Amino acid sequence: MEFRQACRDDVAGILALYTQLNPDDPPLDPEQASAIWERIERSENFRYFVAVEEGVVRSTCNLAIVPNLTRGGRSFGVIENVVTDEPHRGRGLAKSVIELALSHARAQRCYKVMLMSSSKRRDAHAFYERIGFDGTSKRGFYLALPLAEG
Fold first, then answer.
1. Beta bridge partners of 48
2. Is 107 in contact with 65 (CB distance < 8 Å)?
3. Residues of 83-111 as b/e, b for ≥16 C-beta within 10 angstroms?
4. pLDDT per position in the chain (150 positions), as tens?
5. Pairing of strands 76-84, 56-66
6. I need a surface site. Which of 61, 62, 101, 121 has the fewest CB within 10 A?
7. Distance between alpha carbon 143 and the CA centroid of its chain, in Å?
8. Could you tell me if residue 20 is inside a domain?
9. Paired residues of 62 in beta bridges
10. pLDDT value, residue 150
């Protein structure tokens, strides 16, 4: 198993995992995915991390580094879209990709890293707490934004 920052060759595998994370989402057009990946590659504030086995992406998460004017100008991180291929869950893959994201956040001098999880995913909450996240000290809020018309 290889644990590393994702590259362009991993995009199709990441998208395949996202069908497990959000099965109701329509598939992303490959051209659109390529354009989005180009934006990600050009930014110093976005990273994807993967666990790859025999050329197949088995787990992933992404990290956004947010510049900040508080905390002495130290940025903070947001981890999102954590998913492991269902047959490979329970092997520590998500923990390893999250640890890569946390290591990158520390290297960027982030003062904290946040993540959100569906309130229904109690097993995921227990997992995040086991690896060091505090699920009780802050309260997250969510507002879905509809696609603007026009």
1. 62
2. no
3. bbbeebbebebbbbbbbbbbebbeebebe
4. 999 999 999 999 999 999 999 999 999 999 999 999 999 999 999 999 999 999 999 999 999 999 999 999 999 999 999 999 999 999 999 999 999 999 999 999 999 999 988 888 889 999 999 999 999 998 888 898 988 876
5. antiparallel
6. 121
7. 19
8. yes
9. 48, 80
10. 63
Strand partners, 3: 51
The span from the CA of 125 to the CA of 92, in Å, is: 15
**Length of the chain, please?**
150
> Does residue 103 belong to any structural domain of this protein?
yes
Q: Is residue 139 part of a domain?
A: no
Whether the full predicted model's pTM is greater than 0.90, yes or no, is yes
Residue pair 42/84 in contact (Cβ under 8 Å)? The answer is: no
Distance separating alpha carbons of residues 68 and 74, to the nearest angstrom: 6
- Provide the domain limits for residue 55: 2-130
As a whole number of angstroms, the distance between CA 46 and CA 58 comes to 20
Residue 35: what residue type? A
